[in-house]
Amino acid sequence: MMDIAKYKDECYDVMGAIYNVKKELGPGLNEKIYQEGLAMELSLQKIPFEREFAVHPVYRGKQMESIFFLDFFCKGSIIVELKSVSALNKEHRAQLYNYMHLVKPMVGILVNFAPLYAEIERYYYDKDLDLIVNSDGKKLRNRYDDNIEFHSIR
Questions:
Q1: Beta-strand relationship, 68-74 and 78-83
Q2: Which of 66, 81, 105, 132 has an alpha carbon 20 to 30 Å from 5's alpha carbon atom?
Q3: Cα distance between residue 34 and residue 141, in whole Å
């Protein structure tokens, strides 16, 4: 069984950077503004990251020409997907889950900056079981699962 506490510790500084951006910029701005702010904050904190990280999916062992872009890939093991919408929904989660199934990072963080109190959801990839779990260690039934934990920044 995976050690979720270890993974939570691994993303502690990335979560702190997200909180700083929300505190500085407030609610309701465009996603690109939050993306730029987070890039600046990660740089200030000297947290290694790649912005708009390009990934080629693999089909039957062959790399595809198609590309998708992660908003952020931090420390070589944490995906951060940003949104600025009225509320997170199943499609936003499915996007992150799909990225996690393809990239297999330790942690996936989904952030919605638009509301007054930002929504932050964390998910963990269990490599041994090849599945995504929430913060309680419960496996997700499918890529549209609502079995989530979220935090509001106040």
A1: antiparallel
A2: 81
A3: 31
Determine the residue type at 65. E
Helix or strand (DSSP H, E) at 73? strand 68-74
In the chain the domains, ranked by start, together with CATH numbers, are 4-152 (3.40.1350)
Q: What pLDDT, in 10s, does the model give residues 117-151?
A: 889 999 999 888 888 888 777 777 555 455 544 44
**Full 3-state SS string of 87-112:** CCCHHHHHHHHHHHHHHCCCEEEEEE
pTM value > 0.85? yes
pLDDT given for residue 146 in this prediction: 54
Dihedral sign for Cα 112, 78, 128, 61, please.
positive
